[in-house]
Fold this protein.
Amino acid sequence: MTTEQDNRLPPPDVRQQWDTVPYPAAAADRYRAEGLWQPRTIPGALRETVRAHPDRVAVVTPGVRWTYADLDRHSDVIAAGLLDAGLHPGESVILQITNSALAVATWYGLLKAGLIPVCTLAIHRRHEIEEIARQTRASAHLVQADLRGFDLVAFADEIRRLVPSIRLLATIGGRPGASGQERIEDLVDRPLSDAQAARLARIDANTDLDAPAVFQLSGGTTGVPKVIPRLHPEYWYNAVATARWWGFTPQDRLGFGLPLVHNAGATNALHAAHSVGAALLLATPVADDLLALMDDERATWFMSPPGLMNEYLRHPRFDGAFASVNSCVLTAAKVPRELFDAIEARGVHVTQAFGMTEGLFLFTPRDASPHLRASTVGVPISPLDEVVMLEPGTLRPTPPGEIGELCARGPYTVPGYLGVPVGTDSAFTPDGFYRSGDLVRAHHLDDLVAYSIEGRVKDLINRGGEKVNAEEVERILLGHELVVDAALVAMPDERLGERACAYLVCRPDGPLPTLDDVRDYLEKFGLARFKWPERIEFVDALPRTPIGKISKQWLREDIVRRLGGPRT
């Protein structure tokens, strides 16, 4: 039974006070004045779509089909249930869940309850989750209880013992009657009382739009990721800008298989679809599941890392799944021209996208030339995005035509990380540009300045003081007639500190190249000798992260194991 005390908002001192870097006042005023930032929460924006399109399909997953009215109702009762379970607006909740309709409803339910989702992945483990939970002072941990191969419920119990602030364990896919858990399935079909509805309305009306709505994580490959606070107005605008770029309408159906709670999932798929009344077609990236869903529902838009597209191209349902797709967006990794051409040869229009969880997105225009769409990741998606290229480690602008570090600020690029005071973070310039760590080259094509990704500032191998850009060598290795995929990583060396090791995926119908073969090829190409790999490992496929990027961290650890342990 809900009491009158439960229905009141908690006193002000219950709400978390977060150490965040505010947007500069003048910039924030401009974003509001130009209508980019609206004075509403993400749930408030969703409700506007619900009122306009209550009976349109909002989300489809294998076996589930919800309208906007269904999604609104389910997320309302989840929000009320989590508050009744003892959580308070302003508290944070660690998420380790996979793609499902319940995940969508829970995402909006958390936001409607004034709770802050902390967007970790199901593959994160104690090293990351314990520290992230401490940084965000998490009050609850929501896990996928039926995850194959790993017991996230037992893992969450371990984290709860390590992090005293966590009071509640919630699950999706948990066993009925399981003790010590708040099952989302038990909440989703409960009736919503008038008192609960009134409480949710008061939470929305009292939400501080300058306080964090969502905590995302930085994409760093070393150490525990930094926490990125995203705000209601700028985060929803990020999605609105995406939807406008691709021209989404209520008739669109967006195919998506990457992790929902990752930044791309939230902004480019979930919120973008729901900003206009379109349908989100959500599955895992497994070809049998995702392509069947897209085929059955006549998908009009699709986003995927290029590494998965070769599998999709070979699948018998590819042509049906992509028959209605007007934009196949490749993201999260460099697109080989051969793959671009192979997809377009099947009658599918290919574009590219590049983004960072801290903010800036670059997309290639749909009507751009094939050369621009194949060779660049495009241009900024907002008219108020600001982009500069700096020489790495300096504040000097990159000379025209040279490769430089991509730096950005704008209406959806954050001004700082959680808990890192302004002026103390080397990831931001003194005038507020975020230093992405990505190396880019500017190209003047189709009367636009479009950017190509040329590597990472930090993806360097330090060979006795000489720096080797791994992506530069990888691109050259991909030109070898026997090589299908390649990754270059540092291996420890007693004398030089690091040497380069190449992991190669080779054609199954050909011989394996020797190290001398590869060196001969690189010499003929004209690559400096100090950049050559000094060891080769052959693998059937390169390991990838859940969003399709090559897992360099796994490869670095693997070569250490192969060498028999760390060498210093």
